[in-house]
Amino acid sequence: MSNETLPADTNTINKGTFIRHLSVPSYQHQHSNPSEILQTQSKPPNMPTTFLTLPAEIRSQIYHCLLSSQNCLGPPTDLSSNSPATYCFPLSILRVSRLVSHEAYHIFHSSNVFVKITTPWPEAIGHIKREGRVPCVNESAGAAKFEKWHLWVYIDTPIAPPDYNEAGGSMYSMVILLEDLPAFTRMWHFSNLHHQGLNEHLRLKLTIQDPHLAERKIVKGLQQRLLMPFGIVKDLHKFSIEGAKVLPSVVDALAKERVTKDPTMEECIERALSLKELGNQQTKVGQYQDALAQYFAAFDAIHVIVSADGIDRTVHADGFYIREIATGPHQGMRGDYIRMILRVKLVANVMHAYLNLRQPHLAHHWGSRSIRLFRGSVNGSTRTTLDQPGDLDFITQTLATRFPAHEALGKIFYRTAVARREMDHGVVEWNHEAVGGEDGDRAKRWAELSEDGRREALGLMRAATDYLPGDQGVLQELGSLMIEVGARSAA
User: Choosing a second label site near 433 at 20 to 30 A (CA), which of 124, 202, 443, 487?
Assistant: First the structure.
């Protein structure tokens, strides 16, 4: 271990001391067997049990809990932006003692596989994090010096001279984990779809290594995990793979993947429509969880990615759809137009499923987010509220019944209002568009809304009637709500 003194503040891996901590010579250089590293200290009789007198297997489990990536993924650093989660590894454990540092260091590197990404564009780092929602381990200046990677992703352009660094040009690096590599390559794929021809101007060099023993070959399974995600990164100006003992079978499989043609815009839209119809069929028989899976797959088919928790969705590759559809039932129509209608219908269907699954908070989240985005597209508003005076005035600007997919949009307004009520009241049976109960029961449930909730729901219900003027279910709910509002005003 290096003789340098570790700084006092080493609580997270995002500190500037990241490289110094991870570049300390590993104890596994001297011991290839973990059991030789984690040795139980002999404990004299009657001595109290301490951490170092615990069996090696228990200490190893504790290190794994502390230092494995799945236990160190924290919330976004900026909750107000579209930033991804961040990793916060408790590296202060490396300061406990020399022995603990040796043991923890080994577990840290045996539990995590690091990927280093280098590019000449500083804005690319932010794009990877925000648009790709790729959690970052480190992006400080020290990331450029980090050498404990299994894969180095080096991106540049033939426009830059070969001696770019020596000539004074800067390169920017970030470190991510292997499990997040597919999200990075997927983001790159989406960027190339959005900016047609982008990859033709880029060069990519992949270098793999065993960071602990240069001569050691990386096993085939790990080589596949490191290289195969780049199968969707195609049409590059130049592509190369370097490193000791790269397996030809893996290289050949990657080459085959990279020449496979991507689906056309028409194929993406048709697949999304088919998946939506499958979801609708499952909804009809009450299989709402399965329906959600089909709806999310339909979003994915048109490059709208729904997060694993079903809360967030990110739209990619808009530029891919800005042209006329050449084949199929929508021939001659704009791809972005059909995609927009499809997105609105899918949101309405997802909300319907969530309400039937008695998850009104998720239904309300999906609806209110779509309404805010729609409002912003109409009048440029960036407001996040739906319960303040004027929040829904934009409805009069849209010529509601002439708006594409106006029926689906009306259902979004209606279901958002119902979800708002159920959030305050507690979920009741919700069957198709009827929420059950007589008019008096409806009024009672509306009466239990908070003042803000009632104001929001009233605006949403009125908007729903603009888009669904003849829908009796919507009119009945609005009538019940108006009765309650009138009663409150009279009181």
Answer: 487
Residue ranges of the chain with per-residue pLDDT less than 50:
1-37, 40, 79-81, 166-168, 427-440, 490-491
DSSP-derived 3-state class of residue 37 = helix
Report pLDDT for 162: 56
Q: Which residues of 449-482 are buried (b: 16+ CB within 10 A; e: fewer)?
A: beeebbbbbbbbbbbbbbbbeebeebeebbebbe
Q: Position of tokens 């056309």?
A: 264
Cβ-contact 131, 314 below 8 angstroms: yes
In sequence order, the β-bridge partners of residue 370 are: none
81, with CB counted inside 10 A (0-12, 13-18, 19+), is exposed
User: What is the reported pLDDT for 466?
Assistant: 83
**Token pair of 123, please?**
């804005």
Is 0.85 topped by the overall pTM? Answer: no
The token pair that represents 236 in the structure block: 């590059």
Task: Report the pLDDT value the prediction gives residue 486, as an integer from 0 to 100.
Answer: 60
Contacts of 402 (CB under 8 A, 6+ apart): none
Q: What is the pLDDT of residue 79?
A: 44
CA 256 → CA 178, 224, 252, 284, 417, distances in Å? 22, 13, 6, 41, 50
* Residue 22, pLDDT score: 42
Q: Give the model's pLDDT for residue 247.
A: 93
Q: Within 13 Å of residue 265, how many CA atoms lie on the same side as its CB?
A: 24
Tell me if 136 sits within 8 A of 11, measured CB to CB: no
Please state, in angstroms and rounded to a whole number, the distance separating the CA atoms of residues 470 and 91. 63
Q: What is the model's pLDDT at position 32? A: 43
What residue type is assigned to position 123 of the chain?
E
Predicted local distance difference test score (pLDDT) of residue 117:
96
How many Cα atoms occupy the beta-carbon half-sphere of 357 within 13 Å? 17
Distant-in-sequence, close-in-space partners of 246: CB < 8 Å, separation ≥ 6: 208, 223
Q: Are 138 and 175 in contact (CB under 8 A)?
A: yes
DSSP 400-417: GGGSTTHHHHHHHHHHHH
SS3 136: strand
